[in-house]
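Running this now, will post back.
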Amino acid sequence: MPVQPISSRHSESDGRPGLPLAGLAAGGAFLLVFAGMRIFSAALEPVPDVDSVRFFALAERWISGEFGPALHHPYHPLYPIVLGAWLKLFPWPEPAGHALSIVLSVLALLPLALSAREIGGARAAWATAAIFALAPVPFRLSASILTEPLFILLAAWLSWACLLAVQRHGLRWFALAGLFAGLAYFTRPEGPAPLAAMAAAVSPAAFLAAAALVRQKQARATAEVGRPPESAGPGTPGRHPAEAGDARRLASILLCISAAAAVFAAVAAPYMLSIGGITSKKRVERMAGAVASGQETGFREDERPMPPPARVLLDRFETFGKDPSVERRQEPLPAPAWKAFSTLLEAGSYAVFPLCVAGMAVLWRRRSGGRAAALYFGFLVAVHLCMFWALAAGYRYLSLRHAVPVTVMIMPAAGLGIAALFNAAWSRGGHAVVPAALAALSLSVFFVCQDLRPIRARKEYIRETGLWFRTNGIQSPSMISTDPRFSFYAGGAFVHLGECGYEDLVAFASSRGVEYLVDSSEHIERAVPDFRNKLDSRLQRVRTGLEEKYLPHAEPAVYRFAVPPRTRG
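Update: finished.
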């Protein structure tokens, strides 16, 4: 018998039903405010992330039909495919990328609200939407040109399907969870994690059914010892009704889990079998603690992102010298377990996780489907904490970006926690509502103050330095740098600068036809330790007029190689 949805048994928490028009008006107003906040978030990010440049280049490969090289890149393919399709409609990459992320973030509100309404009613849904709108780290990433907006959307739908699956044990919900898990895997490698949490959440029910089946078989065998065969009568052959019911329940749970795994495998198998091993091999080796070779697989980027049609001419990506990011990843992190847990807390601004625990406590007291939902949220956090620990211990790198999707997926439980706290305060009388409202207001003010902080504000010199080439009529400059965003804005070719010596730098630039060295002075001297002492006439400083503007934060430095470069073939 299907488990009754929690929301239908606790609809009294919604209060008086309002007018449909009033609800639609409130929802529309919230969507407008939410979209406006995401637009504001995009304005706080004057320069996209380094990975954004690579996503633009991959998107152009999909547009131009270079599927093989695009698939063999370490990034999973769904986001570049979606971005490439979007760029066909809006040919200005940077604003189009932000617009796509904003649309995806707005769409993610629906599965989050549905999940919260399923476990706690309309008040929990509104609270979840408010948390998603204001939580600082998701607020920042939801408008960025990264995989997070698309992955959060798919993960939210996957979490909704998993929640319905653990509560109702319907085959269609498990199959739907497998489908969304496959799509999430096409976006990021940790996409199937909620599927594992769902399987763990229904495993207690399977265990109880198996244990009851064993006990009933043992009791039946004991009762039949010494009984004459003719005493059984014509109506008793076969299993006892209770035994048959537990057997059907166990078989149903195992069938549902198998269906979810089968659908996921059917969706993800082509990618996993064809190039999944190539894509994830480095990632697995580093998580296991293997020493990285320092050679990055990728491409060289010739990018013209600003004017339409914004075509990107792609060639082989070259890395000169030793990649300093590899050395950074090899530095051991102190206490990987604590790093994993603290990253999760920080991703939720230290407020979402405690509220989620409160919501899980409310679900646990409801028993039946409520306990299954509480187990699901608990295992969801546990599975991701294990992945974070593996990244911190083996890969030696863990970012807030890894923790944002799971932070968003547990927000329905956090919304239920807020709704339950307000319901408890209301039931105690008006004097308890005021402290609850003040606490919610304080949390909102804290979130908003975090939201208003500009990010990467000191990186504006990258944009202005890149555009300096355009304004001075320098077409398609080839440059070597630690940051591909200079060439992104300049519309030129990019070669990655790793750690090297000055003589090797000059010789490499001459042999490969590199015309400019562009970066901040700090980054150049870090990559080329003897740069200041050996700088000579072979590398001439170009005055852009931006040097004094950005002191002392980051002095943009543009050098031109005086040695005539070899003609590029």
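The radius of gyration is 28 Å. More later if anyone needs it.
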